[in-house]
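Assemble and predict.
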Amino acid sequence: MNPLVEKFAKLGTDNAPGQEVRQAAGDVGGIGDKLEGTAVDFSHGDVNPTAFAPTPGAIEAFVAGEARGGSQAYTEYRGDGALRGVLAERLAAFTGKALDGARELILTPGTQGALFLAIASCAMAGDKVAIMRPDYFANRKLVEFLGAEIVPVEMDYLNVRDGAGIRLDELEDAFKAGAKTFLFSNPNNPTGVIYSAAEIAQIAALANRYGATVIVDQLYSRLLYSGVSYTHLRAADIDADNVVTIMGPSKTESLSGYRLGVAFGAAHLIERMEKLQAIVSLRAPGYSQAVLSTWFAEPEGWMDQRIRLHQAIRDDLLDVFRAVPGLTVRTPEAGSYLFPRLPRLAVPLHDFVRHLRAQAAVTVTPGTEFSPHRIDSIRLNFSQNHVAAVQAVERLAELIGRYRA
Amino acid sequence: MNPLVEKFAKLGTDNAPGQEVRQAAGDVGGIGDKLEGTAVDFSHGDVNPTAFAPTPGAIEAFVAGEARGGSQAYTEYRGDGALRGVLAERLAAFTGKALDGARELILTPGTQGALFLAIASCAMAGDKVAIMRPDYFANRKLVEFLGAEIVPVEMDYLNVRDGAGIRLDELEDAFKAGAKTFLFSNPNNPTGVIYSAAEIAQIAALANRYGATVIVDQLYSRLLYSGVSYTHLRAADIDADNVVTIMGPSKTESLSGYRLGVAFGAAHLIERMEKLQAIVSLRAPGYSQAVLSTWFAEPEGWMDQRIRLHQAIRDDLLDVFRAVPGLTVRTPEAGSYLFPRLPRLAVPLHDFVRHLRAQAAVTVTPGTEFSPHRIDSIRLNFSQNHVAAVQAVERLAELIGRYRA
C-alpha cells in the first residue's frame, strides 16, 4: 500500500466523540421498540443554558476583545503577552509552583492543539512514547501521526482504590525500552480517576532517573469531588525542564465554543511549541483569547456550585448503573466522565452503541477509542441536563438488558 | 546533533510577521535621528476601525452563534454541516465550478490550519514538494516540518508583465524529479501578482501529465484591482481529484481575529484533512464558524469600496517607492502586499529592517521569509490607515537614503 494511504487508513475519526453524525443513520435491526425520551449526547458536555452554560462574562469578554481591534486580533503566536502574565500568576497559584508567563506559557487553539504541539515537540518518527491505557483517544493517534511508536502502560483502575492504578513497572519498562516521552491525563479521561500523591511522586522519580519528558493533561483538574486530593506533577520533585502541563477552559468552564487551551512548563519546549504553532495554526483565535481573562476569576461560589451539580449527577447515574447486574464502574473522583464496563453483550460493542443511538437517542463513545482492550466499556460525559441524563442512563440500562449475552 | 533539536533549529519564527516583538528592542547604532510619525506595522493588515474594520455584522453573527449554544460549539470536525452547504454554493459561484459542501469542504482554524492540513495530507517524510520562490513564508516551513523535500520553482515576477512569471520548465523538472505535490499562492504572497490564464492552464496540464496534486492558496482572490482577470485553477482543465483550494476571510474581510479558513476540493483529500484536524485542533472555533455566514454575503457595494480604498493606498505607496532611485517594484494586481526590491544597502537586510523599526516606527517583513534569495526585498501589507501608511513609506524611503550602499 502507498505509505500515505496506509498512514491515513490508520487515522479513523468515525467513532470519535462528536463525529457520530457521520455514521449511517437509522436502526440496523435492533431488538425491540424505540424508547421515548429526550436525546442525550454523552460524547461531550452540554454547554446549553439548560445544562452547563459558559462561565458568566465570557461572551462579554469576547465582545470587548473584538472592540480592542488589531491588538487583540494579532497577538504573538504564543498568545497575548499581558494575558499570559495574568494567567501565569493564576496557574502558579493553582498548581503550587512559580510560572513565568513570558517564557513558560503558550495559548493554543483548544487543548487538542496543545497536546499536538507538546507531543510533536518531544517525539519524532521512530521515537517511543509511553501512553496510558485507557487514556484520551487522541493521544494514541497523535503518536501514530508522528510516526512514533506507542509503548502502552496499563492502568488497573477497576481493581485499585487508592490512586489510578498505573502499572509503574510497565512505565519503567517503557523508559528502559527507550521511551523518552510519557503522556497521560490526570484526572484520567475516560475513567475520572486521580493519580495518588505516591503515584505522582513515583512517576516523577522514574522520569528523573531515565531523563524522560512528561506531558500531563490536567484538563479536568479543577472539577474535583468532595474528599479528593490532587497532586500537581509540576510541583512534585521532578526536573522542571522535563514537564509540560496542559489545561484549558473547555470542560468545567464550558468554554469549548471558543477553542482555547494552554500549555505551560519547560521554556525550551514551549519555544518549540510556538514554532510548531506558527506552522499548524499560527495562534489561538485572537478575540477568543480575551475570554481567558475570566478563567480562574469566576464569580465567588460559581465553581463550587458547578462541582456540586456535577457530583449530584454523578451520584444519580452511578445509582442507575450499579443496579445493572454484571456492570462494573468505578466512582469518578474528578471531571465529568463515567467509564462503565458493561456485562457481556450478545452483539459487538460498536453495534450496541449504534443501537443505543437509534433506539434510545443516547450517544456514548465506545471504549475502544481509549484502549484497544476496552471492547467492554463505554464513556459518558455527564456534564448534561440532570433529569435528561438520568432518564437517558435508565434507557441505556434497559438496552443493556435487551442485548445481554 | 539530536535530530529533534536539529529539526526545531531549522524552524525559526523570530523574523516571521507578527513576531517582531520577540526581537531585541531598541536601536542598535543606527544612522541619524529618529523620524517622528505614527507607528505602522506592515507585517499584517490593520483591522482597527481607523483602517479596515471587520465585515459589518461579523460580531453580531458571533454573538448569535454563542447564543445557539451547544450545536454551535460542537460541530463536526470539518465544520457545521448546514453552514458548509451554504458556503459551498457561494464558493461554487465564486470559482465557477460546482462544489459539494458535504464531501468537498472543510472549515479550519485560519488558512494556516488549512495549509498545514492540505500539505500533510499529500506529503510525508522523504516526499518531494514543489514550492514557488518567492511565496508565503510558511509553505517552506510546512514542508520542512513534515520531513519532506522542497523543490523550488522560481518566479520571474520583476521581468514578466503578463502573468506571474512562473518558470514552467522548472515546475516540469520538479514533477519529473518526483514531486507529487505543488503548493502555490494566487494571488502570490508576497508580490501581489496573478497567474495568467495561460499559466494556470499550463500548471493544470503539467499536473495532469505527472499525476501531481496542486494546492492553491487563493486567500486574496477577492481583492482584485481594476482591469485584472483571475483564473480559478479548480475550474481549469485539471483532474478534480488532484486539486485543493484554500481561502479564508482573514484578509480582505479583516476577520483575522476569528481564525477561520476553508479548504475545498478533492473529497479524498478533504477526508484526510479532517482526520488530521481531529489530531491537531479538532475543529475551527465553534462560535467563530457562525461568522462565516457573513462571508460572500457582505452588504451591497461593501467589497467594491474595500477594493477601491486599497487600490488608492497601493497607488500612493507606489508613487513614493518609484521616486526612490534604484528601487524596483511591480504593481500588485490583487491583495494588499507590496514587495519592493531595495537598492543596494550598506547594511544586511535584517539589520536594515531593525533600524527601520527602531528609527522610523515602521515594521516590515524581510524578503528572506519568502525566498532565501530575496535578501534585497521587503514585504509590506498595505491594508492600513491610508495617511499613516503613506507617511510611513516616506520615512522608509528616507531610511533607504541613509543606508544606501
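The CA atoms of residues 31 and 326 of chain A lie 20 Å apart.
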